[in-house]
Amino acid sequence: MKTRLQALALLDRAMSAMTDAELEALVATLPEDHVAALDKLAGAREVGFDDPAARTAAVRAAVARGRMSGGLEQITTVLTDPCLADFITALGDKSDNPSEDDLQAILPERIEQHGLATVRLTIAASIAGEAAASVMLTRVLKHDPVVALPPAAEAAAPTVLVRSADDDTKAKRKAAKERKQAEARSRREQAAKARNRA
User: HSE (CB half, 13 Å, CA atoms) of 171?
Assistant: First the structure.
């Protein structure tokens, strides 16, 4: 279970490290059926997304919701399928359980062709998919000088809402309240006059 959670954490980090522009560029290279599957996983209605930014926002939301339910893995499987196929072709007979030397021999060309963010995501998806070489892939994703994921973002400090307002804000609020009360009183008076005339 601990290994599984660590694999999912790496996958989540790889997805988070990918910028929106990188994600949109990756989606633009996917076959139509992959884009349709991605849109469905991201919650699109029948026709899918027309706007890349809307798709990206929906994918990010689906990833956040699907971290523990499998949605994250499904989405990254669709996103990384062509890159993974390229890795398998390049590794040939060694694709089932490559050594680190085997991987390093093909990484530069994969990075050039697919981009670093996509390669990271593909490696993380392979780890989450329990590839035979997961231990080696984890080491590469954590420590390789080129491929290693950036450090996990530190949690932002919680925002503390301040309940006390300064004197200027209090004065503005009081004036606004008095204005609303005066307007309401004026409306009531006009309504009363109208009733008396009727």
Answer: 3
User: If you count them, how many residues does the chain have?
Assistant: 198
Domain boundaries, the chain: 2-143, 161-198
CA 22/CA 93 separation, integer angstroms: 31
Q: List alpha helices for 115-166, DSSP H.
A: 116-128, 134-143
In tens, the pLDDT along 13-31 reads: 999 999 999 999 999 999 9
> Alpha-carbon distance 137 to 7, whole Å?
11
Cβ atoms 150, 17 nearer than 8 A: yes
Mean pLDDT score, 115-132 = 94
Structure tokens at 157: 């400090």
pLDDT of 160 higher than 60: no
